[in-house]
């Protein structure tokens, strides 16, 4: 099933400026990078796409289900930029607690937490208290929490912010391993150079509009042929942002 934002509009408050207006988008298969400057509407788009916020008009759909339906919420997961270590809980307990909040019974959530931690290569840290984990490890616990209830669409809001190059590379490889025919990943990021060539698709949002969406090859080809390889992704992004 395809996750679609169909002519959605949204504003933060009755008299506030609309962040998105008649905005439409379908999440592609595989791993998609979501790019755009601060204030472009990326985070709002992701919060609408996961059902955390509801549009003032239009609809967010997964097949025949809208973002208000339980079936929708069981299939779509969102991970915020900041992951909080819950006081006194181990990694397994924190992931299992998230599963329970999403409607799983306690036994199923406890078992699923181990599977989810294994998927993000954190099984060996399952019994470590989250307060003792590094920032990169805590982000992986966040991904496990997002996936614990069996979601097939994963929305990540700036998950590599604040990571050093090595941490970003490890996290990138993790996301690539998750983005399969069974799981679609849409990830907003500023790490264009690190990730652009690894993604299946690239979407650029600017001023509440999609200014580009297409394959990674199509995205990189926006850069002039004489562009140096190390500057190609950033140049393509500048070109894509300027498109109508």
UniProtKB/TrEMBL annotation:
Lineage, uppermost ranks: Bacteria, Bacillati, Actinomycetota, Actinomycetes, Kitasatosporales
UniProt GO MF annotations: ATP binding; ATP hydrolysis activity
Entry keywords, A to Z: ATP-binding, Nucleotide-binding, Transport
SMART domains named in the record: AAA
Cross-referenced SUPFAM superfamilies: P-loop containing nucleoside triphosphate hydrolases
Entry keyword annotation includes Disulfide bond: no
InterPro entries, sorted: AAA+_ATPase (IPR003593), ABC_transporter-like_ATP-bd (IPR003439), ABC_transporter-like_CS (IPR017871), ABC_Transporter_VariousFunc (IPR051782), P-loop_NTPase (IPR027417)
Gene3D superfamilies in the record: P-loop containing nucleotide triphosphate hydrolases
Superkingdom of origin organism: Bacteria
Residue span(s) of domain ABC transporter: 3-232
Native source organism of the sequence: Streptomyces montanus
Membrane spanning residue stretches: none
Name of this chain's protein: ATP-binding cassette domain-containing protein
